[in-house]
Amino acid sequence: MNEAKIKAILENKITLLAKLAEQMEKQVKAVDQNDESSLTQILDEKEAVIESLVRDDQELEKEVALLDEKNRVAIANKLKGLGTQIESEIEKITELENECEKNLLNEKFELLEKMRSTRNGRTLLKGYGVSARIKPKISGSI
User: Fold this and answer.
1) Among residues 54, 53, 50, 52, which one has the least CA distance to residue 23?
2) pLDDT band at residue 15 using 50, 70 and 90 as cut-offs
3) Is the dihedral of CA 120, 123, 127, 128 positive or negative?
4) What pTM did the predictor assign?
5) What is the mean pLDDT of the chain?
6) pLDDT (tens digit, 9 = 90+) per residue, 51-97?
7) Phi, psi of 55 (to 5 degrees)
8) 46, 54, 10, 50: which is closest to 25 by C-alpha?
């Protein structure tokens, strides 16, 4: 019975990881297109999937804890294919996450550079401002 439940949890995990990978691809596109509203929505959906994955992991740990060592090894050998699928999905998601992070860091540095150049431009422009009118020292209209 535990084997069937563990298998169901792992299959659900594969489904959730595939959904997460799909959302990561959408996230990369949203970052590339600078679509903030879409990115916010995608991040919210991604967070919900991650919460489901955490719940599944906790449930899996409980089920595995109920098994003795012999049964753990037997089930691990039977479900090795599912483990391989999970690892490949996680690697795919990690690559997409790293790509997205790299793009966001590049954009951050570009914005910081623009801010610095704007600040330097303001400092330089202060010297070219309108000078105060020099009042004549002699009274009268001159």
Assistant:
1) 50
2) very high
3) positive
4) 0.72
5) 84
6) 999 999 999 888 888 888 888 888 888 888 888 999 999 999 999 89
7) -60, -40
8) 46
